[in-house]
Write a structure and sequence with these properties.
tt1808, chain A; alpha+beta; 2 domains; six-stranded mixed β-sheet; 8 helices; three-stranded antiparallel β-sheet
């Protein structure tokens, strides 16, 4: 493990001690599996390079040097990060992200459908998460991925269909969660006239942006795994990497690829994959 990762681990351990946090408490508070929490707080031999660092960055944004005992906030420069006591606000999310909703943790699908059509949010365990308009590179990658996934599925005459966001997914089949994966693959019958999908897709894919990194890498990973999603892809345009979680086999760590790789689609049984070099060529053509 690199010295910088060790320093950040030590900083997290110090913060845990100051705040009286345990892995059990974090698990119950944040709704993250104990196995995932433990992975954040230990160095694991053979962990793919960068995974630990990315996990640490999600928990410890910036340099958390000061803990305000009066407010319960951890200060990072001029930004206050709340150490939350229940799942509704997740670890390390900026407090300001929630100040427009006053009943976080208590919202339902009725509230979701009452919002204006132009207001894009996700509802996760009763909490609203704003969805900012995606960047141009996000849409470029997503458009290419839809084409490549569709070509792959069609060429092998599979029964799976590929869908783009915004598509509502009532992930837990309850009234407290509605998500919109950037891309999803469904390998079962569905109702063309329905306004949403019910239950877990077979594959979900999220493209990271600055406003969604924590949610996509922690909260949604946990939700997708628990709901029965078989495979989860996390695409990072900034680092030009792709993490692939085989949730069906409950592998502890994802496989890591870069934008030059041909990435196999696990749910296809190895019959097809996504050639990310095609996406990389387009990015380099427009962004050089």
């Amino acid at each position: 493990m690199r010295s910088e990762e060790i320093r950040r681990l030590e900083e997290i351990e110090r913060l845990k001690e100051e705040l009286g946090l345990t892995t059990d408490r974090i698990e119950s508070s944040a709704g993250i599996s104990l196995r995932a929490v433990q992975a954040f707080f230990r160095a694991v031999e053979g962990t793919p390079e960068g995974i630990i660092a990315e996990a640490i960055d999600r928990i410890l944004p910036g340099e958390m040097r000061e803990h305000d005992e009066g407010t319960g906030n951890v200060m990072s420069g001029d930004v206050a990060y709340r150490v939350y006591s229940d799942q509704k606000d997740m670890l390390a999310e900026p407090e300001a992200a929630y100040d427009r909703f006053t009943n976080q943790g208590g919202y339902t699908l009725e509230d979701y459908y009452a919002l204006p059509d132009e207001r894009r949010v996700e509802l996760i365990d009763g909490v609203f998460y704003d969805m900012a308009a995606p960047a141009v590179i996000h849409q470029l990658i997503l458009g290419d991925l839809f084409i490549l996934f569709r070509e792959c599925m069609d060429s092998h005459e599979g029964e799976c269909e590929v869908f783009l966001s915004p598509c509502d997914v009532r992930l837990d089949r309850d009234n407290r969660t509605m998500v919109q994966p950037d891309l999803l693959v469904l390998c079962r019958a569905y109702d063309l006239g329905a306004k949403r999908f019910e239950g877990a897709p077979d594959l979900t894919l999220e493209i990271l942006s600055p406003s969604t990194r924590s949610k996509d890498m922690l909260l949604k990973l946990h939700k997708y795994a628990n709901a029965g999603v078989r495979e989860y892809w996390i695409v990072d345009p900034e680092q030009r990497t792709v993490l692939v979680y085989d949730l069906e086999r409950e592998e502890e760590y994802p496989r890591k690829y870069d934008f030059e790789d041909n990435i196999p689609i696990g749910i296809s049984g190895g019959t097809c994959g996504i050639d990310f070099s095609r996406i990389l060529r387009r990015i380099e053509r427009h962004y050089e």
